[in-house]
TrEMBL record:
Listed InterPro entries: AKR, AKR_Detox_Biosynth, NAD(P)_OxRdtase_dom_sf, NADP_OxRdtase_dom
The protein, known as: NADP-dependent oxidoreductase domain-containing protein
GO molecular function annotations of the record: oxidoreductase activity
Originating organism: Oryza brachyantha
CDD domains: AKR_Tas-like
Coiled-coil blocks: none
Amino acid sequence: MQQMAISAFTANPSSSYGNTLSGLCSRWPEIWRRRQVSSGIREQAQSQLQYRKLGDSDLVISEVTLGTMTFGQQNTEKEAHDILSYSFDQGVNILDTAEIYPVPTSKETQGSTDLYIGRWMQSKPREKIILATKVAGYSERSPYLRDNGKVVRVDAANIKESVEKSLSRLSTDYIDLLQIHWPDRYVPLFGEYSYNPTKWRPSIPFEDQLRAFQELIDEGKVRYIGVSNETSYGVMEFINAAKVHGLPKIVSIQNSYSLLVRCDFEVDLVEVCHPNNCNVGLLAYSPLAGGVLTGKYLDANPDISKKSRLNLFPGYMQRYNASLAKVATDEYVKLAKKHGLTPVQLALGFVRDRPFTASTIIGATTIDQLKENIDAFTSAPRPLAPEVLDGIESLFKRYKDPTIL
């Protein structure tokens, strides 16, 4: 799949032709044939996903990452397998899961997502799949993740136990990308936008976390490491600890990024992640803001949103459904229609084209949703037109991160 997509962008340059009319006429059939072939190549290139190298790793990943957090909660195993197979057939080569999935989390369902993925992977070539998962950060509410039933931390014992259990559930002997789901130290998370100094607590040193990952890499159980829901301070501390102590460097950061959530990343993480600085690739999650940017929640009684997560789980990700976020979403939907785009094409095209985006994580509970999401990457003009981007920036000036409550 990857080779097909890359080769689609290569074509033999047209040869020079004679300057006489007779020469042109005699070679016209060849010119026409070449133009037809060239046109076909361009169409093929536009209809296929692109691939990028992830940070300083050797992982070449599709611009779409399949998010799986609904498997085992909103999706049955058969539905999950259908979603996985369709994504794989379309060229998506990276899957993202986590030990706590599915979401919303519970002791009863924890690990179901991994089990579904593991059974699906048994019929697929393992080397063609880039498997990303996450070890939970500090948690007092999820002691069931560990055998000792205590507070979950990001120390050597917790990391090792997490990985061993993930490998077993996923029916594999290695993880391509292991990420820290959220930091061991206190940071504002999941809708919090202000650092509270009184919540500071002692945390596992960055060096100790990296040494634990080094052991797993040495054992061949993990290939690369990354972070999630991290700040510029955390990224730099991990980078510095790796450099000073000769430990593995993080290659990715998985943070929320969308038309409704931009400031946190754009203010300083873009600089940190720049290839000329730390070269940490963004795996953007919630690019549709929990589905809000599709516009499906704008109607008070839409059939399409009755089974969507914000209605199924009251209070979940409520920041995306707040009044100002709805106003901004309505404006983005209007902007998309003005330029002949769907709301999904606008939202995903925007994240796709950001120079710091390595891959965009999409989730879907139906094949129709999945198809629309994947198609948006190839059907939306690449890049989005200047007038579309101007419209986005105009709205951004009016509605800077409207999910901040």
